[in-house]
Design a protein that fits this description.
mainly alpha, about 950 residues, about 70% helix, single chain
């Protein structure tokens, strides 16, 4: 690689020099400038020949560079690691089984291969060496997956930390290979990583690396077994390899995947005697009732492949009157019908053909329909949609195909075709009407729309907008989902299949189905992520809407895209998408949709502290919701407006808005909204010094979130409880609450809440006398806020960092932090935060002997605190002024101011602080 780059650089440099010289010659010739020496003078006298030479040099340079670029190391693919060329369009997802598929009776006498694998694993474990990757390769139908699964069952007890099975779709007809980043997201989720914690973003290579690092970290020190089935290339699977030395990875592939750290286990066709033994066992016939010579011929005719042997044996078992010779004659006839195929293909296809022709006509039609399925696995409901039959009939058909060894059964009554059988079914289906494919995809997509409508009833808040079911949903049979848990389980299982259907529908230009399926998947992907998958899906929906000219659908896709971008903390992209959604909704006169988009845009502006824009958006959204009579929308806009008013220290307006929102939420029975309004009211009451009421609100909110099993919002309530406890002097209780909140945030991958918890714990470190730890912790919180673009959090962290540095005597660093904090707070209009920082800065100046300057800061804080009715900062400012006056003018002039501060502290319930001030006054009077 380095040599090739060096050669390229040399060629470019040399070519550039020659080109420059020739251009100079021509220019001189034209302009009659000075003569060039020697043979160059001849070129100068013939400028047109110089042009010809210049062109030749340019063409030669291009050819050389192209040749250098084409020289790649052997065995390396030209596509980038993160994503191959065919990644445009809807996103995909990997199907991950959290346990091994069941072992099969078709496994037969792979003693040598199995002993080799077991011996390799035992040797590595006994010596403590790193377990190598074991690659099981071989031709299609030879039994690679069967061998891997059987070996996995044999070795499972040696890997007690879990067994995972992943189908990478490397050679699956109609499916693109699973991308590494998609497989990693599914593996991390299967390993218990909350989806919100899985790295997301637009840089596929960077995200793949980040997910791979998390995957390696997750399995570090674990003994787990991972089967990567149907791999297309080493590049596809390399990021999926665990970092732990005690994990076993089994890879199956039709290709030879060469890498120095692998152990390759080639699986060949069965030896003739083993193939015959497998046939006898599966046929259900006594050995002495079968002509072994005929059985050897049957095994030879199907290439000694386990898949073919299994199908032939099943045929004989299902026809008790047939002899082995009858079966051989039928197989020979089938091979003649498939004479145009290559010998290897003909051997296995003949067994398929024989099994297919043995089916009843309605079973044949059903089997052909399976070839159109875009997904990986299916259940009876999908089968019913594909076959255009009732679910009961589909169950009978699937059972019949399973008995005929034409499909495999996976746990949970789910079925899957072997890739070769999928090819065969698709080939049969393609012989029919070309519209059959389109109609089958339409039926499956319609089924998924109906089932998603059922699932969304359990996961979407009451009153929130959800995509309606299809018009003919009443005729579509869907699974029973009785709870949110049932719905989420079904959604996670079907995620890769729904995404595959969306991709297929997009390829067939069924844009309306793409739009509707993306919208129906939106609520689940909002909650479950990974959010980059949701971004890809909603982008596809937006492109589909543009294809059809459906502005309302375009607006909906953009609105969903904006919401997911907000979750990813990609605020500029979120704002852009939501603003465009507002414009599109406005163009079609959809007031409800416009209000939804404005509400979401207002939330983004609140998070980025553009308070004026946020207030305007929420006010306009509220008016539109009132016009259309949408009560939940009104409550949401009021609640979000209350948060803006609180952020700008307009506490009375905040209480008014949140109280009205709370009333509507309770009217609608929306427990989630009720909890949010209670929590924000608690924050406002805390700022107003009403600590008992604040504590009550936060406890009520926490209890509601606990009922809803919403750990993210439980953590938010815990943080707010911790703040109230700290302000009322319960430092131990505060630390307990913030620590528990932090644990929740880390578990759930919620970065903003995590930063808040860290900041609060840093404040407690300072108050507990550990300023050094406080500085370290607060600097971590500050960086987190900056990474997220949360300016309000940045200002708060800077203010507290300044206070901690003051305690440590780091005056310059403290002043710098205070100054930057005030700058941000004034831009945001956060007068409460500004008063708090001014009080901190005043205290630094007072303890540094600059009483006059300190008094100025305290007086500014006092004016702000009284203007917004923030009693805690009022009391702190009064105390600071009193102590400064004590130094500059004597204790007599300071007494009244200090008494006023004690009164306010007492009213807040901060008796210990009030007692300290009164003791000071008593001492002075004495």
């Amino acid at each position: 690689m380095r040599l090739r780059r060096g050669a390229a650089i040399a060629v470019v440099a040399g070519g550039g020099a020659v080109t420059t010289m020739l251009v100079g010659l021509v220019t001189n010739a034209v302009s009659a400038q000075s003569r060039w020496p020697s043979w160059l003078g001849w070129l100068q006298e013939h400028p047109w020949l110089s042009f010809v030479v210049l062109g030749a040099v340019t063409a030669g340079l291009t050819a050389v560079l192209a040749a250098l670029d084409d020289r790649r190391p052997p065995g390396r693919s030209p596509e980038p690691t993160g994503r191959p060329d065919d990644v445009s369009g809807p996103p995909g997802a990997a199907l991950v089984l959290r346990s091994l598929p069941r072992d099969t009776t078709a496994f037969t006498n792979r003693t040598a291969e199995l002993e080799s694998l077991v011996r390799s694993v035992h040797a590595a474990q006994e010596t403590g060496e790193v377990l190598p990757v074991h690659v099981i390769d071989g031709m299609p139908g030879v039994g690679k997956t069967t061998f891997a699964v059987h070996a996995g069952h044999v070795l499972a007890e040696r890997f007690p930390d879990g067994q995972l099975f992943v189908n990478l779709n490397g050679h699956t007809t109609g499916r693109r290979p699973v991308q590494a980043t998609e497989a990693l997201a599914s593996l991390l989720a299967a390993a218990g990583v909350p989806t919100q914690q899985i790295p997301v973003g637009d840089d596929v290579s960077a995200i793949t690396e980040a997910r791979a690092a998390m995957w390696r970290s997750r399995l570090s020190g674990k003994k787990a077994l991972l089967i990567l089935d149907n791999a297309a290339s080493y590049r596809q699977l390399e990021p999926l390899l665990p970092g732990g030395s005690e994990c076993l990875v089994l890879v199956t592939s039709r290709k030879r995947l060469a890498a120095h750290e692998e152990v390759v286990l080639p699986v060949q066709a069965l030896p003739p005697d083993h193939a015959v033994d497998l046939f006898v066992r599966l046929s259900g016939r006594p050995t002495d009732a079968l002509d072994r010579d005929v059985l050897k011929e049957l095994a030879r005719l199907c290439g000694y492949l386990p898949l073919g042997v299994s199908l032939l044996a099943a045929r004989l078992r299902h026809h008790p009157t047939w002899s082995a010779e009858d079966l051989r004659e039928r197989l020979v006839a089938a091979r003649h019908r498939l004479g145009e195929l290559r010998a290897g293909d003909r051997a296995i296809a003949a067994t398929f053909d024989l099994s297919y022709r043995d089916l009843a006509p309605e079973q044949q039609r059903f089997f052909r329909g399976l070839g159109f399925y875009p997904g990986t696995e299916l259940d009876v409901y999908v089968g019913a949609a594909l076959g255009d039959v009732l679910v009961a009939v589909a169950r009978e058909q699937l059972d019949a195909l399973y008995d005929a060894h034409l499909i495999d059964e996976h746990p949970g009554s789910r079925y899957r075709l072997h890739d070769l059988l999928r090819d065969y079914a698709r080939g049969l289906a393609d012989e029919g009407d070309s519209m059959d494919h389109v109609q089958a995809v339409q039926r499956v997509c319609t089924y998924y729309l109906a089932a998603l409508a059922v699932a969304n009833e359990h996961i979407v808040r009451s009153g929130a907008g959800v995509p309606p079911p299809p018009d003919d949903a009443a005729q579509v049979e869907t699974p029973v989902m009785e709870s949110r848990t049932d719905a989420l389980s079904w959604l996670e299982t079907e995620r890769p299949n729904v995404l595959a259907c969306i991709r297929q529908a997009n390829g067939l230009s069924l844009y309306d189905l793409v739009i509707r399926l993306a919208a129906a998947m939106g609520p689940f992907l909002r909650q479950a992520g990974p959010w980059d998958q949701a971004v890809g899906l909603h982008r596809t929906a937006a492109e589909a809407a543009q294809q059809t000219g459906d502005q309302r659908a375009l607006a909906g896709a953009l609105a969903e895209l904006g919401v997911v971008r907000r979750f990813m903390s990609a605020y500029p992209e979120a704002t852009e998408a939501l603003n465009e959604a507002v414009r599109q909704y406005d163009a079609v006169g959809d007031r409800r949709g416009k209000a939804d988009a404005l509400n979401q845009a207002g939330i983004v502006w609140y998070l980025t502290a553009d308070n004026d824009a946020s207030a305007r958006a929420q006010t306009e959204a509220l008016a539109l919701y009132r016009e259309v009579g949408h009560r939940l929308g009104q409550a949401n806009a009021l609640a979000d407006l209350g948060m803006v008013r609180r952020q700008t220290s307009d506490f009375d307006a905040a209480v008014e808005a949140q109280s009205e929102a709370l009333s509507i939420y309770r009217e609608l029975g929306d427990r989630y909204g009720e909890g949010n309004s209670l929590r924000d009211l608690g924050v406002v009451h805390c700022l107003m010094g009403e600590y008992e009421r604040a504590m009550q609100r936060h406890r009520e909110a926490f209890d509601l979130y606990a009922e809803l099993d919403d750990r993210v919002h439980q953590a938010y309530a815990l943080n707010e409880l911790g703040v109230v406890r700290r302000l009322t002097g319960d430092l131990d209780g505060a630390r307990e609450a913030h620590t528990q909140a932090l644990e929740y945030y880390i578990e759930l991958g919620e970065r903003f809440g995590r930063a808040n918890s860290i900041r609060h714990l840093g404040v407690l470190d300072r108050l507990s006398g550990d300023a050094a730890t406080a500085i370290r912790v607060l600097e971590e919180a500050l960086q987190a806020y900056r990474d997220l673009g949360i300016r309000g959090g940045e200002a708060a962290a800077l203010g507290e960092l300044g206070a901690a540095r003051s305690v440590r005597g780091e005056r310059d660093g403290a002043v710098e932090a205070f100054g930057r904090s005030l700058e941000i707070l004034r831009e945001l209009g956060d007068r409460s935060g500004e008063a708090e920082v001014l009080n901190h800065w005043g205290e630094l100046l007072r303890t540094s002997g600059e009483a006059a300057a300190a008094r100025g800061h305290f007086e500014q804080a006092l004016g702000l605190a009284r203007a917004i009715r923030c009693p805690l900062e009022e009391a702190r400012a009064l105390e600071g002024i009193g102590r400064c006056v004590w130094v500059t003018d004597g204790s007599g002039d300071a007494v009244e101011t200090l008494r006023q501060s004690a009164v306010v502290y007492r009213r807040l319930g901060l008796d210990a602080t009030a007692d300290d001030i009164e003791q000071l006054l008593v001492t002075q009077a004495g």
